[in-house]
Amino acid sequence: MKTLIINYKSDTRAFDNGMRIAELCGRIPRDRVNIMLAPPATMLRQVARVAKAVAQHTDSPATGGQTGKITVEEVSMSGASGSILNHSENRMTLNGIASTVETLRKNGLISIVCADNLVAAKQVGKRCMPDYMALEPSDLIGGSVSVSIARRQEVREFVAIAREAGSVPLVGAGIRTENDVMRANELGAEGILVSSAVMHADNFRAAITGLTKALVKKIAF
Prior knowledge:
The chain is α/β, with parallel strands linked by helices and 221 residues long. Helix content is 43%, strand content 17%.
């Protein structure tokens, strides 16, 4: 089944439209596309009540005080299904990723680990074996050119790395159009991680509908 992850980030639109997006996604049948929403931490419990939700980030397990941290236990208690880790805007050490993936797994939660490049993907795959890996080159995030167009060979190699690690391969960065999504499908990706394509869309309903339809389409040559 193809996967669509929508990262709300901390955009003001997340607070304006976040619950409407969640309610819409909660009504979409899950038999063809696995939709996961990553709202700000303050909205995680609320979103998880109506749709499948994951945390944008979870901190590495630690002893002592945890002021300002987001723990695996908090994510679990919120009703979320898991967490994104190592996003380009919130990097983690390899040791931190590994320990957090392990703790998520022990709590029955999924891990979605982002990698900026193939070297990082190989390290994460070998050491951490997360449930999902997402290739997100930081120089393409928020841009107008998608990773599935600009980095075709890199995506192919990443898909092989993820599968060898037993992870579901996802791609992100610059993905906005249905063509971007279908090209990712062609290269072997099993889903996409997006933000601006939905959060900055004039019509988020149309954007989500277009992305979900494209995920299950095949390119006609």
